[in-house]
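New to this. Explain the following:
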Amino acid sequence: MLVALGANLLIAVAKAVGGLIAGSPALLSEAAHSVADSMNEVFLLAALSRSRRPADRRHPFGYGKERFFWSLLAAVGIFVMGGCFSFFQGVEALRNGAHESFRGYVAGLVVLAVALLAEGASLLRALHQVHQQGGAGGMRDPALRTVVAEDGTAVVGVTLAMVGMVLHMVTGQVVWEASASLAIGVLLVYVAYLLGRDARDQLIGRAADEELSRRIRGLLEAQPEIDSVEALLTMQLGLDSTLVAARIDLVPGLDSEEVEDVAVRIKRSVAHIVPQADQIFLDVTDAPTARAAVRGDAARNGDVTAGSPAATGERGGA
C-alpha cells in the first residue's frame, strides 16, 4: 500500500503538469484519478492502523469494521474526485474544444507511458500480495481489495487516455480525447459503486460466507450432546473476526452443570476448528416446547407468518 501511495503521488504531479502544458482533458482526468487514489491510500492506511486496536468497554467486539468504514470513504473519493471530474473534463472538451501542439502530445504521451509502467508495477505488487495471502482468500481484505481495484482501474484509465490522445493527434478531432475522459469517468464511477456496495454490506452486518457457515453448522450438529441446531446466525466483525450465534436443542437428561460444561467445550471446539469464529454465543432451548409456544401464540393472534424466521425467533439475539 505504501508503494501504491508513493507511485500515485508522483504520477498525480506528473499528470497534472503534463495536462496543463498539453491542455489535454484526458490527461487532466487521469491527474484527478491519481489524486483520488492518493487520498484513498491515506484512508486505507488509517483503516489498517485503527482496525487493529484491541476491544474496549465502548467497543466490546473490537474495531475490525473500521476497515469497511474507511473503504467506503475511499469509494466516495473515487466517485467524487475521479469520476465526476473526468465527466466534467470530457463535457468541457466537447463544448469548447481543446487545442494541443505536437510537443504537447509528445509530453502527454511520455507522462502517460511512465504512469502506465508505474501503475503496472504497483498492480503486480498488489497481486503478488494477494497471492501470498491465499489467492482469492486474500481479496477478503477490503484495503487490499481497494488497492487492487484502484491499480487495475489506473492501468485501464491510462490506456484509455493514451488511445484518446493518439486518435486526437492523428485525426485532429477532440471528440476522441473527450470520449476517453468520459470513458474514464464511467470506469471510475462503476468501480466506486462496486467498492461502496461491498463496504455498505459489511457495515450493515454481512453474514459469513456460506462455506464457513456450513462448516460451523456441521461442527455443531456433529456434537453428541446437541439434538438439533434450530438457528445459526453469523456476522463478519472484521477481516479475521466472525460472530457466531446458535440456538441449539440439547439431548434430554443433562443437568445444569453438564449443560454449562457442554457449552464451554462446544465453543472451544468451534473456535479451534474455525479460528475466525472468535465470538461464539450459544442459546440452549427446548425446541419442541418453543415451537409449540410459537404455534399457540400465532393461533391466538391469527398470525399467518408463524413459520417465518421472525415468528420462530430466529432473528432474535442469541
In short: The first strand starts at residue 226 and ends at 238.
